[in-house]
Recover the amino acids of this structure.
C-alpha cells in the first residue's frame, strides 16, 4: 500500500459549531486531521516539509507533505531535503510543526480569525513535558485554540478496537510505528504506562535498512532507490520470516522455494539496438560509393600523370631544339644562345635532356634502366689502383686514393646486395621446409606453432613486466605499502645507485675522479635512458613472435591476434553490452532481513529488546504480580501501527511470546481492524463523547497550573 | 510562480487568516534561527533524576537490552555468519563472501559496518 494522502481543501468548516472538536493524529510518518465523531480523517499528508528555492525568483517557499513531484521541477531542492518535526517520536522542531499545522488547518477549511474548536492531538507515551508544553503553547498562542487534550495514539487504537469487540478490557497493545515501537498493557481499560516499554525501532529503520542494503548491492542504481520507492518496495514485498535462521538457509542452499520467494524489480531498460547485418542493397550501395570515389581518384591521378608527361615532352622537345640550334651555331654564338636559357654549357643541356627523358620514361611507367656503367670502364676507372705508389706523381697518388675509396664502397654495396639475396633464399627455403612439415602433419605443426607463440608471448610479457615493475615476485602491491625502492625498475635503480655513490664518494681522501679513463664511463651509464637499451635493434624474439602470429593468422582460423594481451582482457568486461539483468533489483534475503530488525534490533546496532521480548518485559513490569491477570493480559494482544502490516507478524509474535511466557499460558493476538487509521478513529470517537470537554485543559488552566501539572496531565480513556 | 504551481496550491501561503501570530512575525527574516533542542538535550533538561524512580518518564520506559544471544548475520548476504574478518571487522558466511569483502573498497566496508552502528567514526 503506497502513500495515500488526501489534501483537498474542505469547504464545510463553517458548518461545525465551535464546540465541535478537531482531532489530530500527529504521527511520525503521517499527519491526519479531521472532525470528532467522523469515521475518516478529512486531510491526510506526510508529516514532512520541504523548503526549496524558486528557480526563477529565488524566494524560499514552504511545501508541506507530499505533492505532485513533477511540480518541484520549478524549484531548487538540492539544498533542502524533506524535514520532519520529530526527533525519534518526540516533536522538537516547532517551526516545522507550525508549518504542518498551518497546512492542516488550512486544508480543513479554516477561514475564521482563529481556530475556535477544542483540539485533541496525539503524542508519544510519556512525552517529555518540554515538548508537550511547547505544543500547547503553539496551539493556544498562534491558533487561539480554546482547549487542548493530549492522548497516546496506541491507546486510542486499543480503545477503538475494544469498542469493536476485537480486544478486551484487560490486554496489551503492540504498536510498531514509524520511529519507535511500544508495548502498553491495559488494565480495566486504562493504559498502564509504568509497565509499558519502548524500543527505538520502527518502519523508518526498516526502510532505511532496506535502502542502504540495496544501494550497497546496486551502487549503479542508487538514484532509482529513492526513499518513497524503497518504502513502496518494503510495503509490497517485505515479510516476517517464521524463523529467520531456517528461512535464510533456504536461500543459502538456493532452494527452489527460495527462488519462488525472490522478487525482481525490473528497472526501465531499453535494449541497446542490435547491430543488424547490413542488407544486400546497403552493401551494394556502399560498394558503389566506394567504387565511385576510387574512380574519381584514379581519374585525378591519370590527369596529373598526363599533364606531367605533356610537360616533360614539351621540355624534351625544347631541349632537342636547343641542341639542334647549338650544333649548327658557331662556337661564338653559343654563349648568346645559352644566355637566354638557364643552362651554362652544351654539356649541361645534354644532361638535362637525359634527365628529362628518364623521368618521362618513369612517368609513362616504362622500366627505368639503372645504368651501371661500371663494368666496362672499371679497368680504366681504377687504372691507378694496381700501380705501385712509387711510380705515381703526388697528383696521381691523390687520385689513386680516391679510386680506392670508390671501389671499396661499391664493392661493399655489391656484397650487401648479395647477402640480402642469400638471406631471401634462405628464408624461402625455410618456408618451404615448414610448409612441408605442415603438410606432413598439419595438426602437430599447428600445435607446435601455438606453443611457440605462447612461450614467446610469455617471455616478452615477462621482460616487459621486469622492465616496468622490477622483479615479479616481490611486488605484491595489492597488500599496500609500496616502498620507494619498489616503484623503480632495475635499470632505474641502478642509475639511482650510481648517482648516489657518485655524490657521496667525494671527500673521501683525495679526489681521484677523472684520472682514469674508465671514470668517465660513469656519465655514460648515468645519462643512459633506461628504455633505449634494446630499442635500436628490434628484439629477435619480438620479430619471431610477429612472424609466428602472422603465420598462425594465415593457417589457423581460431587464432585471435592480440596485440596487448593485458589491456584487452581488462577492458573486455567494460564493453559488455548491458542486459536486462543489469537493470534488475533482486529482493531475496532482504525481504525478511529488513523487518527482522523489529525482532532483533541489534542487527542495526540498537541494543534493545525486540517486539516479542518487549511483551515479556512489559508483563514483568506490571505492578500486580498476579498470574491470572498476566494470563488475561496475554489473552488479548492487539497489533497496531504501520509496521505491524508485514505478513507473518502475528505468527512470529505468537511464537516469540510463547517462548517467553510460562508453558500453557493462553496467548491470543489480534490484528487491529485498520492498523494505520485506528488511532485517529479511536481519538475521533473519544473526542465525540459527551465527557470529552472534562478531559481538555484551557489556556487559563495551562498558565495557572504550571508545568508540573502538565507533566502529570493524563487523559482518562474510559469516559 | 508558474500557473500550474499556483493551481496545485503547492506553496504554503505565508499569511494565514486563522492565525493570531503569523509565521513571519514569529520568525522574522534575517534573524538568527531558533536553535531547537534535540531530543537528547530535551531529556537532559527534563532532569528526570530529580523525580522518584517509580514515576514513569520518557527514559525509563525504554526497553532493556535483549536477553537473547546476539544474532550474528553476514553483513553482505544476511546469511548466518560463523566467521569474522579481523581486517575489515565484517562478519561473513562463507568463502565466496570472504572473497567479496576482501575486494570491497574501504568506504563500502565502512558503510556496511555503519548499518549495524559499528563503523569507525572519525571526529
Amino acid at each position: 500500500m503506497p502513500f495515500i494522502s488526501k489534501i483537498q481543501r474542505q469547504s464545510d468548516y463553517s458548518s461545525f459549531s465551535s464546540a465541535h472538536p478537531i482531532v489530530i493524529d500527529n504521527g511520525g510518518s503521517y499527519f491526519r486531521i479531521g472532525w470528532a465523531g467522523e469515521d475518516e480523517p478529512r486531510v491526510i499528508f506526510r508529516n514532512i516539509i520541504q523548503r526549496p528555492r524558486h528557480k526563477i525568483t529565488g524566494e524560499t517557499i514552504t511545501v508541506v507533505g507530499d505533492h505532485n513531484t513533477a511540480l518541484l521541477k520549478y524549484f531548487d531542492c538540492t539544498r533542502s531535503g524533506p524535514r520532519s518535526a520529530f526527533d525519534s517520536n518526540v516533536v522538537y522542531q516547532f517551526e516545522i510543526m507550525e508549518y504542518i499545522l498551518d497546512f492542516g488547518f488550512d486544508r480543513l477549511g479554516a477561514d475564521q480569525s482563529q481556530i475556535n474548536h477544542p483540539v485533541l492531538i496525539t503524542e508519544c507515551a510519556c512525552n517529555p513535558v518540554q515538548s508537550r508544553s511547547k505544543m500547547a503553547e503553539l496551539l493556544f498562542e498562534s491558533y487561539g485554540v480554546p482547549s487542548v487534550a493530549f492522548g497516546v495514539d496506541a491507546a486510542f487504537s486499543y480503545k477503538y478496537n475494544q469498542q469493536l469487540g476485537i480486544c478486551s478490557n484487560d490486554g496489551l497493545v503492540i504498536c510498531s510505528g514509524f520511529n519507535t515501537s511500544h508495548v502498553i498493557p491495559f488494565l480495566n481499560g486504562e493504559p498502564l504506562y509504568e509497565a509499558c516499554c519502548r524500543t527505538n525501532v520502527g518502519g523508518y529503520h526498516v526502510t532505511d535498512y532496506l535502502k542502504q542494503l540495496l544501494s550497497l548491492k546496486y551502487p549503479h542504481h542508487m538514484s532509482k532507490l529513492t526513499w518513497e520507492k524503497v518504502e513502496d518496495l518494503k510495503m509490497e514485498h517485505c515479510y516476517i520470516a517464521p524463523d529467520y535462521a531456517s528461512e535464510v538457509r533456504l536461500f543459502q542452499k538456493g532452494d527452489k522455494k527460495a527462488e519462488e520467494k525472490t522478487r525482481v524489480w525490473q528497472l526501465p531498460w531499453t535494449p541497446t539496438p542490435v547491430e543488424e547485418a547490413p542488407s544486400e542493397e546497403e552493401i551494394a550501395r556502399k560498394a558503389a560509393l566506394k567504387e565511385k570515389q576510387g574512380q574519381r581518384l584514379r581519374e585525378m591521378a591519370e590527369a596529373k600523370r598526363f599533364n606531367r608527361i605533356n610537360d616533360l615532352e614539351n621540355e624534351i622537345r625544347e631541349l632537342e631544339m636547343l641542341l639542334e640550334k647549338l650544333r649548327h651555331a658557331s662556337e661564338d654564338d653559343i654563349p648568346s644562345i645559352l644566355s637566354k636559357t638557364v643552362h651554362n654549357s652544351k654539356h649541361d643541356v645534354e644532361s638535362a635532356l637525359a634527365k628529362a627523358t628518364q623521368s618521362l620514361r618513369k612517368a609513362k611507367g616504362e622500366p627505368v634502366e639503372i645504368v651501371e656503367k661500371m663494368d666496362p670502364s672499371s679497368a680504366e676507372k681504377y687504372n691507378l689502383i694496381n700501380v705501385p705508389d712509387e711510380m705515381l706523381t703526388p697528383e696521381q697518388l691523390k687520385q689513386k686514393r680516391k679510386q680506392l675509396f670508390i671501389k671499396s664502397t661499391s664493392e661493399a654495396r655489391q656484397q650487401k646486395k648479395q647477402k640480402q639475396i642469400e638471406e631471401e633464399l634462405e628464408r624461402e627455403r625455410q618456408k618451404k621446409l615448414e610448409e612441408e612439415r605442415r603438410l606432413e602433419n598439419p595438426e602437430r605443426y599447428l600445435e607446435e606453432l601455438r606453443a611457440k607463440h605462447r612461450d614467446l608471448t610469455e617471455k616478452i610479457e615477462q621482460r616487459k613486466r621486469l622492465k616496468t615493475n622490477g622483479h615479479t615476485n616481490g611486488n605484491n602491491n595489492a597488500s599496500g605499502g609500496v616502498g620507494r625502492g619498489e616503484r623503480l625498475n632495475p635499470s632505474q635503480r641502478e642509475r639511482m645507485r650510481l648517482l648516489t655513490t657518485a655524490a657521496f664518494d667525494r671527500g673521501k681522501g683525495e679526489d681521484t675522479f677523472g684520472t682514469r679513463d674508465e671514470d668517465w664511463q660513469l656519465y655514460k651509464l648515468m645519462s643512459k635512458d633506461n628504455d633505449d637499451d634494446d630499442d635500436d635493434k628490434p628484439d629477435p624474439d619480438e620479430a619471431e613472435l610477429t612472424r609466428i602470429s602472422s603465420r598462425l593468422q594465415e593457417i589457423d582460423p581460431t587464432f585471435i591476434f592480440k596485440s596487448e594481451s593485458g589491456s584487452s582482457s581488462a577492458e573486455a568486461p567494460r564493453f559488455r553490452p548491458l542486459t536486462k539483468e543489469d537493470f534488475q533489483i533482486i529482493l531475496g534475503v532482504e525481504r525478511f532481513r529488513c523487518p527482522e530488525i523489529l525482532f532483533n534490533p541489534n542487527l542495526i546496532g540498537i541494543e534493545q529488546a525486540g517486539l516479542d521480548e518487549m511483551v515479556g518485559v512489559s508483563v514483568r513490569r506490571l505492578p500486580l504480580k498476579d498470574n491470572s491477570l498476566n494470563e488475561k493480559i496475554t489473552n488479548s494482544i492487539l497489533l497496531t501501527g504501520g509496521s505491524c502490516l508485514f505478513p507473518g507478524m502475528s505468527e512470529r509474535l505468537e511464537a516469540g511470546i510463547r517462548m517467553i511466557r510460562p508453558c500453557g499460558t493462553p496467548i491470543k493476538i489480534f490484528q487491529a481492524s485498520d492498523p494505520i487509521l485506528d488511532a485517529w478513529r479511536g481519538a475521533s470517537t473519544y473526542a465525540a463523547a459527551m465527557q470529552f470537554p472534562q478531559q481538555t485543559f484551557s489556556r487559563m488552566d495551562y498558565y495557572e497550573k504550571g508545568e508540573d501539572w502538565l507533566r502529570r496531565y493524563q487523559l482518562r480513556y474510559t469516559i | 510562480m508558474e500557473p500550474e504551481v499556483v493551481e496545485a496550491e503547492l506553496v504554503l501561503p505565508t499569511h494565514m487568516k486563522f492565525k493570531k501570530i503569523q509565521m513571519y512575525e514569529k520568525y522574522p527574516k534575517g534573524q538568527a534561527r531558533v536553535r531547537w533542542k534535540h531530543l537528547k538535550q530535551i531529556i537532559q533538561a527534563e532532569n528526570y533524576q530529580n523525580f522518584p524512580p517509580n514515576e514513569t518518564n520518557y527514559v525509563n520506559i525504554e526497553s532493556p537490552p535483549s536477553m537473547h544471544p546476539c544474532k550474528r548475520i553476514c553483513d553482505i548476504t544476511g546469511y548466518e555468519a560463523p566467521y569474522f574478518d579481523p581486517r575489515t571487522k565484517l562478519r561473513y558466511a562463507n568463502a565466496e563472501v570472504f572473497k567479496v569483502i576482501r575486494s570491497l573498497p574501504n568506504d563500502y566496508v565502512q558503510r556496511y559496518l555503519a548499518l549495524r552502528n559499528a563503523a569507525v567514526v572519525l571526529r
